[in-house]
Amino acid sequence: MVKQMPTREQSLQVIRPSQEVPPEAAWVSKRFEFAEQSNALAPIWGLLRRRLFVIASVAICATTASWLWSSTRTPKYEGRFQLLVEPLKTSDSELVRLLSKTLQENVNELSRQTRTELDYQALMEVLKSPKVIDPVVQDLKTLYPDITYDQLVGNTNGKPAAIGYNMLMISRITQGKDESRVIEVRYRHANPRKIEEVLGRVADAYRKYSSEQQQSNLRQGIKFVDQQIPQVRLRVNTLQAQLQSFQQRYGVFNPDLQGEQLIKQLDQVKTQRLETERKFAEARSLYVSLQQQIGMRQNEAIAASALSESPQYQQLMTRVRELDAKIAEMGTRYTENSPMMINLREERQKLMGLMQQEAQLALGTNRLTDLPARVVTYQNSVRRDLTQQLANTTNQLQALQASLQSLVQTEAQLEQQIKEYPAVSRQYINLQRDLQAATDTLDQLLKRKEALGVDAAQQDVPWELIMPPTIPRNQKGNLVPYAPTPSRDIILGAIGGLLLGTCAAFVMDNLQDIFNDSEEVRRATRLPLLGAVPYYQEMKKPGGKMPGKTSPGSEEVVLDPKAGQFAQAFCSLYNRIHAYTSESAAHTLTVTSVGVNEGKSTVAANLAQIAAQAGKRVLLVDANLRRPQVHEIVNLVNLKGLSEYLEEGVDFSDVVGLAPQEDNLFIVTAGKTVKNPTKVLSSERMQSFINQAENEFDLIIFDTSHLLGKLDTTVLAQQTDGMVLVVGLGKVTRSHLKQAVEELRVSQVPVWGVITNNLRG
């Protein structure tokens, strides 16, 4: 028997009814698919474990190469200094701050607008120009004769050069998206002494240049602006007064918005009028139709409706009808002069009088004789509803007519306002445009005045050296190279090696012609994945010995009883099989594999056991007439079996045996091996065996030979309800699995799906 799984009660606790999934149409007659919720990272972790040696080797080689490369490099250093080329605060900047409060503007925005912008791009070119740098080069030649202007500014005449090495790098310091007024100059070289000499002389040259660029013509611009400001301010005040007077006279504040509102109101009124006309026409048509249906005028309909709503009147009318019926009945037995008939007619006359009184109360009129008989007679529910609709429609017509008249008047008023509005709007726009132009001119003059004042003050202040020429040092006072340190190179090399090793592992894994995880099998076969038997180190290897007995040549795997994960795997597999068999009323199942030593017999045996524990009557048949295995797994003697039934005519009951320790599991061993299994499995005797087994058992599982090179498995599978294909991970090649799937497709075998068996960690 299969090594004992958890107890029946424990197994049934993990079995849950699976959601039944209807079969999907494909290249087989029966096929189904279950949603698998697996860990997407599991295949990746498995690959990393398999290729750990490759990844570690590549990482070690890369780390060693990085260490060797970094240890042979000559360290290079970088020095720098910073210049403030525009002043941060002057007396004029305080005036700009006060002016911004008057205009209710942002200080930074106003300062940016009123300041004469410095062209930093042009400034960078000037700072590298021969006029500024040549004196520095001539001064440095006494210490470093090989230095040249082209070398210092990076002019290589189109030849490639190391970026930033032995040349000045000038840039503007930025903070996020904001660019500051600070210029930074950097210089890289292997000689720290040369860095200090070059940067010191360049800083002095830049400060000297700033002092030579002072300008005096800005003062004339300030004088011209002062003359223009009073005239423009007077024009702004005059236009503001005219615009205010116009607004008070016509009530115009936003011509565009007010004009749009008038047009929008007119459109709305027109829409409402058209809708009201439509409703009026519909109500009028309904009114005429209701009059024709009930055959009454409006007043008559109202009166009939009122009488229909009077409970007393309706009760009296009901009694009158009852008396009429009784009079008609008695008239067949009594004469008109009989006391009975006279009493009935008198009673009817009294009721008619009461009806007239109730009608007067309900209608509020004494002229009942003027109303037609169709009004005072009985009104059924349909006529009462029609009468009520006629009254409601009359009221609706009156309301719609009043609304329509109001809308027509409103529409005419709006059209008149729209005709007069363009002239008023044009006058307002002209005044507003003139005022805006004058205001803009005044604002520009005021801003220009302050900007000119700030620029004039700036020209009097030379550039400030806020950071002297400096080379970075560490806490111990040693110079720090600008290039990455050896430790950093080693770390980067190790990281790069790990990445490169991982890529190599993926490439090597993909180049192998075997399957390593269940998802690869599912994608390659395009069949549903029914289950995945996990790897376990205590599983019996092919050709080994089972505890307490010998199983030479055995290709199967026996589960340890403590391996709960295996119990769960087979319970999950049974849930899937049970879902399909319940849906399609299937009873017979063939279990096979692509090649040998893939664990198909173990899958068949454990599946049969878990189905028996679930309460099914299960028959496990060893149909592998070449290399039978089931009798060794279930620990039975293989004396009489399937081959004796097929060839010698042994009775069905003589070859069926009860499995040890399992009441619902029955076994049919293979019996003796035969020379031509294909012939006996395709015989009528085999079909009779299947029919008799279906009558006595709920589920019949056939363990067969492997597929490749064997015709008997396909022949048997065509006689059963379905087949499951066991795929041994780490063993089956892609080409063999592809060939097996193609053979099943051609033979039209109903494949339910695949089961993967992990034969290695």
Instruction: Provide the CATH topology of the largest domain.
Output: Rossmann fold
* Subunit organisation of the chains: single chain
CATH H-level superfamily of the largest domain: P-loop containing nucleotide triphosphate hydrolases
Helical proportion, percent range: 55-70%
Uncertain residue segments = 1-39, 90-115, 539-562
Q: Please give the CATH architecture of the largest domain.
A: 3-Layer(aba) Sandwich
Q: How many domain modules?
A: 4
The largest sheet, given as strand count, sense and whether it forms a barrel, is:
8 strands, mixed
Strand order across the biggest sheet? 5-12-11-6-10-7-9-8
Gap between N and C termini: 26 Å
Average pLDDT, all residues: 75
Strand percentage, roughly? Answer: 5-15%
CATH class of the largest domain: Alpha Beta
If helices are DSSP runs of H or I spanning 4 or more residues, what is the number of helices? Answer: 27
Number of strands: 12
Description:
This protein has 761 residues and is an alpha/beta fold. It folds into 4 domains: 45-73 and 483-511, no CATH class; 77-214 and 460-470, Bacterial polysaccharide co-polymerase-like; 273-403, no CATH class; 513-758, P-loop containing nucleotide triphosphate hydrolases (Rossmann fold). 57% of the residues lie in helices and 10% in strands. The protein has 27 helices and 12 strands. It has an 8-stranded mixed beta sheet, with helices on both faces. The chain has a 4-stranded antiparallel beta sheet with strand order 2-3-1-4, with helices on one face. Helix 4 (91-103) packs across helix 5, helix 11 packs antiparallel against helix 16 (381-459) and helix 12 crosses helix 16. The chain is flat and about 155 Å long.
